[in-house]
Design brief:
It contains 15 helices and 12 strands. By secondary structure, it is of the alpha/beta class. The strands form 2 sheets. A 7-stranded mixed sheet has the order 1-7-6-5-4-2-3, with helices on both faces. The protein folds into 2 domains: 237 residues, 3-Layer(aba) Sandwich (Aspartate Aminotransferase, domain 2), CATH 3.40.640; 135 residues, Aspartate Aminotransferase, domain 1 (Alpha-Beta Complex), CATH 3.90.1150.10. The structure holds pyridoxal-5'-phosphate. Pyridoxal-5'-phosphate binds next to helix 4 and helix 5.
Length: 417
């Protein structure tokens, strides 16, 4: 049997990037330790200077983390990866590795609420963000100026469910010597490999689909190694440019990440690695369920607007079809008023009211009163967060049960005066 063909996704999820484990354990061992001892002072000195392989202290590196990082780098087609304590710290560390006071970021306004809050914290460091409601080449190009240093977007915006044209944005960014950073949390490596489309840095909150059961917080940054950083435009990278394609990872791992200290717990990365192994199967079912639920709710007179990139009336249906292998597992539905949205949530039987996505079970939330509670009214509108909107992170339940659950909840609500 020939084996030259590129393996399929589920095969790659199980086998790619695995590091040899000397006892032969099939799963990555959990190195639940702070420090690593060495036979001699000379040896530890070498480890500290990267002159010998090995580990010194878990905030600087840990074998359980290294296994997950190597798998994620292989899956995304990057040259390396650094894992973090959370998706938020991954975004913060990736950006703080390259930005300095006076720099500007151009970002989609349809971002995860925490990321918008982070950009507002960056203002206090002198890093300004220009937000774009609908991020296209046409809307971004006029905002690029001599201070622009990063273009940042989510592949599938959470919760607006807009889909970025990664290839077009990367091409525009590179024409101006700017890297494209993408948060691919909601798309996962199963739906898109942004580096293949030109993205320079890919970030995931692996707390979500990758871990998959809502059991642990973690994040990861993957670098393509392709962007050419210069001292003039990226003074934050000074001292690391000598590493060439590894410059970003060196600055990140040996400087920003090590010193800010958001190292992930080994146990959490064990869970992320475990989740990765079934990600393909889960995404297939989750995306199928989301499509079935979105279509059913759209056809029901009990609900208002339903947004899902897999519906043909989504403004992002075409780009999603072109760029993604499926349309994702999140949809939003409008209920007419905040009170009705609350009441629908309260009457659902199978859908947990919780602030998370990417769980095996279906989760619902009213974003306006929770995740976006601390954003301005304008920020909420720009992110597609309306007062009557429910976000649904579709789970693995049987689609018929989910559809039935939403219909029965809406029926109860419509009978209540
Ligand atoms: C959840 C989420 C984050 C933040 O990740 P944490 O692991 O919760 O810190 C960032 N981006 C997106 C798209 C998310 O859904």
């Amino acid at each position: 049997m020939g084996c030259t063909k590129t393996p399929g996704l589920q095969t790659r999820l199980l086998h790619e990037g695995r590091r040899p484990e000397h006892h032969g354990s099939t799963l990555p061992p959990i190195y639940q330790t702070s420090a690593f001892t060495h036979a001699s002072a000379e040896e530890l000195e070498k480890v500290f200077h990267h002159q010998a392989p090995g580990y010194a202290y878990t905030r600087i590196g840990n074998p359980t983390a290294a296994d997950f990082e190597s798998r994620m780098a292989a899956l995304e087609g990057g040259i390396g990866a650094v894992s973090c304590a959370s998706g938020m710290s991954a975004i913060a560390m990736a950006l703080l590795s390259v930005l300095s006071s006076g720099d500007e970021v151009i970002a989609s306004s349809c971002l995860f609420g925490g990321t918008i809050d982070l950009f507002s914290d960056f203002e206090k460091l002198g890093i300004h963000t220009r937000f774009v409601v609908d991020m296209t080449v046409e809307t971004v190009a006029p905002l690029i100026n001599e201070h622009t240093r990063v273009i940042f977007t989510e592949v599938i915006g959470n919760p607006k469910l807009n889909v970025a044209d990664v290839a077009a944005l990367a091409e525009l960014a590179h024409r101006h010597d700017i890297p494209l950073f993408v948060d691919s949390t909601t798309a996962t490596p199963c739906l898109i490999r942004p580096i293949e489309l030109g993205a320079d840095v890919v970030i995931h909150s692996s707390s979500k689909y990758i871990s998959g059961s809502g059991n642990a917080i973690s994040g990861i940054i993957i670098d393509s190694g392709r962007f050419r950083w210069t001292a003039e435009r990226y003074p934050a990278m000074n001292g690391f440019l000598k590493y060439g394609p590894m410059a970003f990872l060196a600055r990140l791992r040996d400087d920003t990440w090590r010193n800010f200290g958001p190292c992930p717990a080994p146990m959490n990365l064990y869970l992320a690695s475990l989740g990765l192994e079934t990600l393909g199967l889960r995404m297939e079912r989750l995306c199928g369920n989301a499509k079935a639920l979105a279509s059913a709710l759209k056809d029901s007179p009990l609900f208002g607007d339903v947004t899902y990139p897999g519906l043909s009336d989504s403004p992002w249906h075409d780009i999603a079809g072109k760029e993604l292998t499926a349309y994702g597992a999140i949809l939003t539905v409008r209920c007419g008023s905040k009170e009705r949205a609350f009441s629908v949530i309260n009457h659902l039987r199978y859908c947990a009211n919780a602030t998370n996505i990417g769980d095996v079970r279906t989760l619902v939330i009213h974003p306006a009163s929770t995740i976006y509670a601390f954003n301005t009214e304008q920020e909420r509108l720009d992110a597609g967060v309306y007062d009557d909107l429910i976000r649904v992170s579709v789970g693995l339940e049987d689609a018929e049960d989910l559809i039935g659950d939403f219909i029965q909840a809406a029926e109860v609500v419509s009978r209540t005066p």
